[in-house]
Specification:
Blueprint: H1 25-28, H2 42-52, E1 56-60, E2 66-71, H3 89-108, H4 129-139, E3 143-148, E4 151-157, H5 158-170, H6 178-192, E5 201-206, E6 209-216, H7 219-230, E7 237-245, E8 252-253, H8 262-265
Parallel strand pairs: 6-7
Antiparallel strand pairs: 1-2, 3-4, 5-6, 7-8
Length: 270
Amino acid sequence: MIAVNAARIAQSDGEPRRKEQAMKASDVMTTTVMSVPANATIADTVQLLIEHGYSGLPVVEASGQLVGIVTEGDLLRRAELGTETKRPRWLSYILGPGRLAEDYVQAHARRVEEVMTREVATVAPDSSLEDVVALMESKSVKRIPVVRDGRLIGIITRADLLKALNVALLRRPEPARGDAAIQDAIMTEVAKQPWAPVNGVDVFVRDGVVHLVGVIVTDEVRYALKVLAEGIPGTKAVKDHLTYVEPVSGMFIEAPDGPAPEEFTGGAKD
C-alpha cells in the first residue's frame, strides 16, 4: 500500500487568516497535505484519489522534497480503458520512436513516478494571491503546491480561494452613512477605474437608491458601473438611466430604467 503523507505541516487550520493587508499564499493554503511517494503504485494512487475525492496529489520524497504531481489528467490515456494514444502511421514517423515510447509508458506504467508531471508550478508562502491566481490561469491548473526550499509546506486549490472569498464577503465594510456618503464612495471608486468614462455619467443617490445618469458607448461599461455601484456598502438598488449611443452611426437606445427623474436633470427644483 501507499505510504501516505497526510500530516499537518504548518500551524494552520486551512482557513483564511483575517488580515487587513493583502493576503498571501500562506494565509489561505491547506496545510494538511496528502501526498504520495514516487514509487507508489498507480492502482493504490487511483484508490486514494477516489476515496478522498481529490483530482490530484503532490509526489514527495521522504525528506518532503516535492518531485512532481499526479493528477486525473495523467491517468486518462490507459490501456485498461482502451484509451491509450493511437496515432496515424504517418504521424508516428514524424514524431519518432521517442514520443511513441512515452505514449506507451503513459498507458502501461505501474508506478506514479512514470506518469507524474515533473515540472510543477509552485509558489512561495509569501507569494501574493494575485500571483497564485495568475499562475493557475497561465498553467491551466486547479492546484498550486506551496514550497519552502523545495519542501512541500502546503497546497492551494480553487476551493481554498473560494474559502478566502467567503471570508472577505462576510467581512464587508459597514454601510456608508447617508446618500452623500454613498455618492462620494461611488465617485471615488469610479475615478480609480481606467475603463470608467471621465465625462458624461453622473451619479445621484436618493434614500439609498443609486441613479446612474448619462451616456455610454459600450454595454460593458454599463454593466461595470452597475456592479461598482452595487458593491458600495449602503446601496439598496441601482437604477440605470444610461443611454447607449453607437459611436459611428450615432444610433441611440433608451436606458433600461427609462429617463432620469427630472430632479436629476434640472427639470425640477428641490
